[in-house]
């Protein structure tokens, strides 16, 4: 059995711990003055509910979830507003996608009676800085809230859209809107995947930011293997279906490639021995090396290790488009999961692939762009620019 890629998997940031991990008494959460307080170590006297500052936290990721657990309930009344009702321990997302861990083991519910934190499952749509209110839309029954957006960020109606073929929300998915007042507002809504406007990527690629994304990746790998063993599948289509492409050789893409390789050779090949020698994993990046943000020696070691384990390293490659259908096919290119996709690069032309995961970086969410990029008047003690030369939307803080 091929060994696990422990060397590559060990590239996670040192000291990264779960936000619920116990903090030594000498450590403080690095927040802005006025919010930097720890539940375990505050000496402030308890205030009545109407005296406590109402802190609304948008987002249940690393920033929002951690802050909600560390604010002193004696001083603050924290409220988390998020489309998803859980926190995801993202460093283990690749392990869950590859089957090494159960998905339930890498999530923590936001709603917890012992945390003394209120929770509203909704998405923020707008902020009124003068009234100190947030316009929210309930997302309790909305589909796709656990997945990355499936349409272009300038075209989609919300930041939590459904699948690519559903350009418009079904009527029943539109949640009720309401306002949430705040004394202090913390925005920790994260980011969306950056596609650089590459044709077909937003509609056809898979992303890797949340539980829903990881489940889709795992499901698609299994689909490709099942499609490949069908007696009606032609040899070329079989080869294309079992080619798994990952675009973006940063920490996420690199570790996903390693985990996917482990999943295929440890689990899938045991179940599909007839497909021995056909599966292929390719890691694409426009940079000349993987993990370009790390030390040169680490990058070389990662590339050497992955190549020795059969992962194709496609650095200095420029992706030009992604569509459904095999290489050389004529339009229309309608979505058909029973067939492969075609990834087009400047260097190789058209390449068939059963799945393309896009992990190239982050971009600003539509909510942030619309709410703050055009703000000219910042209320006192609410939001301010960090220096006089900053323009609205570029450099501001709470």
UniProtKB/TrEMBL annotation:
Gene3D superfamilies: 3.50.50.100
Alphabetized UniProt keyword annotations: FAD, Flavoprotein, NAD, Oxidoreductase
InterPro entries: FAD/NAD-bd_sf (IPR036188), FAD/NAD-binding_dom (IPR023753), NDH-2 (IPR045024)
Organism annotation: Penicillium argentinense
Keyword Transferase: no
Lineage: Eukaryota, Fungi, Dikarya, Ascomycota, Pezizomycotina
Matching Pfam families: Pyr_redox_2
SUPFAM superfamilies per the UniProt record, alphabetical: FAD/NAD(P)-binding domain
GO molecular function terms listed in the Swiss-Prot or TrEMBL record: NADH dehydrogenase activity
FAD/NAD(P)-binding domain residues: 54-363
Annotated family: Belongs to the NADH dehydrogenase family.
Region (Disordered): 145-168
GO CC terms: mitochondrion
Name by which UniProt lists this protein: FAD/NAD(P)-binding domain-containing protein
